[in-house]
Write a structure and sequence with these properties.
Blueprint (H helix, E strand, L loop, with lengths): L2 E7 L3 H12 L3 E8 L6 H14 L7 E3 L14 H4 L21 H11 L4 E5 L4 H9 L9 E5 L15 H4 L2 H8 L5 E4 L1 H4 L3 E3 H9 L6 H22 L3 E3 L1 H10 L4 E6 L1 E3 L10 E3 L11 E7 L1 H13 L7
Parallel strand pairs: 1-2, 1-4, 2-3, 4-5, 5-6, 6-12
Antiparallel strand pairs: 7-8, 9-12, 10-11
Helix pairs in contact: 1-2, 1-11, 4-5, 5-7, 9-10
Length: 320
């Protein structure tokens, strides 16, 4: 049976990869794509999402725009050095034929979950603002969703925007705090595992070698985006691969056995001058009285990368 999913994104490059992976996957019913600020502003994220959906041949999937800034304070601006000026590596795509729905993202989330209680998995690979807004509108949401899978946080490893904080959580720590304390059945796909799942130039060369009339436009756009991202990570971190954080959250939703998780009590730091947005767990194992999150700690990276390139390209990759 197809899994029913809402994907919440701030469409930069790895969000685009997550959208492609989700929309090309055969065992998913995508109820909607919701957008917000983050890697780019919400208007650009919405445009990018519409373009990527059309690139995937799924223009009929509804898109809903959401939050333009965090619950408190202001958006800090785009992440140009990782995602380019337009969020998708400065790749030029045709203007979309479809438009975003008139409903606000959080209203759509509330409506969709209430129409099919217990059926919908929500995957968030952006700031948690849209989900926090939805929670404020319907506090019973945690009892109605099937699950929430969050790409965010760094429980056992360093952060990526500060020494201790990851971008999606740090971008709206108050929203993350609301979501983590609400009682959602929540899985955290953090830097603990996403930094292990890296696409390389060799992976992209294989995808390019698989081009034909069914996938040429998609693979050429993806290759151009990934050239930008690979260069960014080489310059930023000195590594030869690019972590594809957001698609891993999709994979965990569709294939939970691709990771090993541990229940933990995780809190979000909202006040610290040096630690705002940190995802804090008692790694001593002393406080497990109220575990609120299943934290991903190990991942079968080889299996995931193979699954990703096969689903997106529509081709089978032989194991060497």
């Amino acid at each position: 049976m197809a899994k029913k999913v809402i994907l919440d994104i701030d469409t930069g490059i790895d969000d685009a990869l997550a959208i492609l992976y989700l929309l090309k996957h055969p065992n998913v019913e995508v109820k909607g794509l919701t957008t917000g600020f983050g890697n780019v502003d919400v208007a650009q994220a919405t445009l990018n999402t519409l373009q990527i959906a059309e690139l995937a041949g799924a223009a009929d999937v509804p898109v809903y725009a959401g939050a333009a800034k965090p619950l408190l304070g202001e958006w800090k601006g785009p992440v140009v050095h990782v995602h380019g000026e337009n969020g998708i590596g400065d790749v030029s795509l045709p203007l979309p034929k479809e438009k975003a729905g008139e409903e606000r993202a959080s209203d759509f989330i509330v409506r969709a979950v209430n129409e099919e209680p217990g059926e919908i998995s929500i995957i968030t690979v952006a700031r948690l603002t849209n989900l926090a807004e939805a929670l404020a509108k319907d506090p019973t949401l945690p009892q109605k969703v099937k699950e929430v899978v969050v790409m965010g946080g760094a429980v056992t490893v360093p952060g990526n925007v500060t020494p201790v904080s990851e971008a999606n959580i740090a971008g709206d720590p108050e929203a993350a705090h609301m979501v983590f304390e609400a009682g959602f059945p929540l899985t955290l796909v953090g830097l603990d595992v996403t930094m292990q799942t890296q696409i390389t130039a060799e992976d992209m060369a294989w995808m390019v070698s698989q081009k034909d009339e069914t996938n040429e436009e998609l693979i050429e756009a993806l290759d151009e985006m990934m050239r930008f991202r690979l260069a960014a990570y080489k310059k930023m971190d000195g590594i030869d691969g690019s972590p594809i954080h957001d698609p891993l959250a999709v994979a965990v939703t569709l294939h939970p056995d691709i990771v090993k998780t541990e229940p933990m009590q995780v809190a979000i730091e909202t006040k610290g001058a040096l630690s705002s947005g940190a995802t804090i767990a008692d790694l001593r194992g002393r406080d497990l009285t109220h575990p609120n999150v299943n934290v991903c700690l190990e991942v079968d990276a080889e299996r995931f990368i193979r699954e990703f390139v096969e689903v997106v390209s529509g081709k089978k990759r032989e194991v060497l």
